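Thread: Modeling a multi-component assembly for a lab meeting

Hi all, long-time lurker, first post. My supervisor asked me to bring a structural picture of a complex we are working on to next week's group meeting, and I have zero experience with this. I have the sequence lines for every component (830 residues in total). Could someone generate the structure of the whole assembly? Inputs are pasted exactly as I received them:
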Amino acid sequence: MNEASIITIGDELLIGQVVDTNSAWMAQELNKAGIRVVRRVAVGDVWDEIWNALDEEQHHADIILITGGLGPTSDDITKPLLCKYFNGKMTVNEEARQNVIDIFTRLNRPIIERNLLQAEVPDTCRVIRNYRGTAPGMWFEKEGRIFVSMPGVPHEMKGMMELDVIPALCRRFNFPHIAHRTLLTAGVGESFLAELIQGFEQELPANIKLAYLPNYGMVRLRLSATGPDEKVTELEIDRFFERLQGLVKDYLVTNKDEPMERTVGRLLTRKGCTICTAESCTGGYIAHLLTSIPGASEFYDGSVISYSYEAKEDLLQVDKTILETRGAVSEEIVTQMAKGALKNIGSDYVIAVSGIMGPEGGLPDKPVGTAWIAVGSKGGIFAKKVHFRFDRIRNIQLTATTALDMLRKFLLQES
Amino acid sequence: MNEASIITIGDELLIGQVVDTNSAWMAQELNKAGIRVVRRVAVGDVWDEIWNALDEEQHHADIILITGGLGPTSDDITKPLLCKYFNGKMTVNEEARQNVIDIFTRLNRPIIERNLLQAEVPDTCRVIRNYRGTAPGMWFEKEGRIFVSMPGVPHEMKGMMELDVIPALCRRFNFPHIAHRTLLTAGVGESFLAELIQGFEQELPANIKLAYLPNYGMVRLRLSATGPDEKVTELEIDRFFERLQGLVKDYLVTNKDEPMERTVGRLLTRKGCTICTAESCTGGYIAHLLTSIPGASEFYDGSVISYSYEAKEDLLQVDKTILETRGAVSEEIVTQMAKGALKNIGSDYVIAVSGIMGPEGGLPDKPVGTAWIAVGSKGGIFAKKVHFRFDRIRNIQLTATTALDMLRKFLLQES
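Re: Modeling a multi-component assembly
Sure thing. I ran the full set together rather than chain by chain. Output:
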């Protein structure tokens, strides 16, 4: 069957102290390589629970990838457990030992005995080199199943997956090809989209699946096709993806699997234009989204985050009288903020935002979640009021996404 | 045993398109209520895999919480499956039907047949009201096990958990008390910490566990205690937590389970002082962290994000000649940026950052990941060079966290 299951180990996952981003990344990479992930399981640093998970997952998948529990501290029991599970004996691996010494020498830090313990591995595994840390990975085989154990530190695990695990799995198996196509829509609900593409969905062949992925007030649609032949599968999925794009064209943001800010960045780069932002309630989140994109300096100049009244006056030359009569959350002020940023930063386009994100600070006529958004250029500014009813962080995210979408439409209307 | 298992349903979790934040939140809330989460399992929108997960998880836990797969689109098969699994018949629930109508009326949107289908539930469940969406939750019982199905939309699930599920579980069972204490350290590695508190760790009684949670170059230490009596358990964990804080005092950032930015915000509020930032490479991320905190306007004034050379000159009055001779990533420029922001925004304290976050843009003497950070006040600016070796996003996060920690130390040294 050549399907994979991911086991993540660590009490922190079960008390919710950290969000598991590792298994999402692993699932993505495995899918690209044509390996279907059928299950993901998280268990605590508890001997029996880890043991049971190893026992059970081999009934669901023949590739079992394990992360976490390999640190140098005593809450990490995974390595001795794996040693026993795969009937091994702990021995020092010379290559892993040298790796620990190299890393500490490079960092110019003293090595303590506990660090060198990292080089001990069961003699029944193949050691996977860790280029980015001291804990080696381990590859075990048992009754036709492959078990790979990696550290939980994301960039260490990622290095091992890319350089060793995925290439080794691909050499071993002949996976069917998996192709995905994703598009992003905005301004339309999941149910309405479903009505719109009902006929299309019913005509999909058995090897192509459609999924609805709502997020941040937008809906992503994803087609997934499997087939023995890469070319045939890619052609087939492209044909259906073309039709799907036509059906949702009025709401289509992008036909790539990318966030809104990347679409906006590409539109700006294509025009050879730049943008700045003037943010109050979003507190730099729009700037952060835009600058998360590699090469953002091509289309992004800078921003003014004006949280206080003084900052709005001093950095954006907002009119004090209007600030006092209309309040900071008003069409007049957000328009002035946009104009001030355009003038002071000298960009071609601007996004300005002023609102009340909560949980406190709401007014009778401006409840928590209210924001004014302005987008535009020297040629003109367009402003709109929005109202979201969520918690502070989600209100910030939704306001930012809505502002980027307004700018995107402004850019498209112009051209 | 009164332990819980969380099943999340959705193909998007298995191809890694979304990160599962629901189960982390659920685990947190269950723990607070004294319910231990023993496993988390993610499966796709596949009939047999969901069925198997229901069969299996009841061997691990007696409370099984399920999220996802309840949307109105045809990739959602969870509801009919639950109907069959619990030997029910689909019937319209009048209260759920009225809820759908109310929501659409409030949003002033037309109802389509597909929306009303949300009100159909198996007649073998107790319906859990969804105040924030159209899909009702379902509470089933079978052979002494409780199964609760909720939508995957985070704020809908959260509403049901808080208003119905957790109170109902607490009424039913007599959970042991669980207490957690968390502290945050910076500037010290996991192994070194482990050496430092080795003796302490060995003396911990069986009902208290210690966990190391490394994140963003910092290490969180968490104590978890269980016991039948709330008062006794809280007193016992406080005693050990006190000792632990003493042992790590040189590296202690906060003894609360909170992010660095909240600690910094509290220090500023206590002084009655405000802060601004001047960010280049972090692109507003420090401003975003500070403004994510409710009530940030008490201690945060605003920021200048100066990505381009022009923005650095125009908004922060950075010296053009120095910019050209030393480059933007230099001690001189980051110090000028800090002074410019202090002057233009008028805050008491400032953080300024300039660097190269990658993947492109590295120079022989300033490789990717290099950043200059300045912190200070009108009384003086202190600057430091850092170098991180990760991807763009992680470099941004680490630079931001390091900058906040530098400011924290600056604030503490002053007082």
